[in-house]
Design brief:
3 helices; mainly alpha
Length: 81
């Protein structure tokens, strides 16, 4: 009886963690894409903020966001908790 409860608890934790990883991965990936492609999107309010940031720093941080977001998506799909 107790082991059945523990298995159900582990399964619900794995599902919750997977959804969290997928959501955060998509959010971080979209932020990385926005940083890399922000000058081409030309959204006025945010474009003024992006233009004031050094382009090299913006590209490095955008690339890191793409890598980390991809890792979070992979971990959410793999579900090895």
């Amino acid at each position: 009886m107790e082991s059945d409860f523990r298995n159900k608890q582990r399964k619900s934790y794995a599902i919750m963690r997977s959804i969290y990883d997928l959501g955060m991965g998509l959010l971080i990936l979209s932020m990385g894409l926005f940083l890399l492609l922000g000058d081409k999107l030309k959204i006025d309010a945010i474009y003024r903020i992006l233009i004031s940031i050094d382009p090299l720093l913006r590209y490095i941080f955008g690339g890191m966001c793409l890598l980390y977001g991809s890792y979070r998506l992979y971990r959410g799909i793999k579900k090895d908790y």
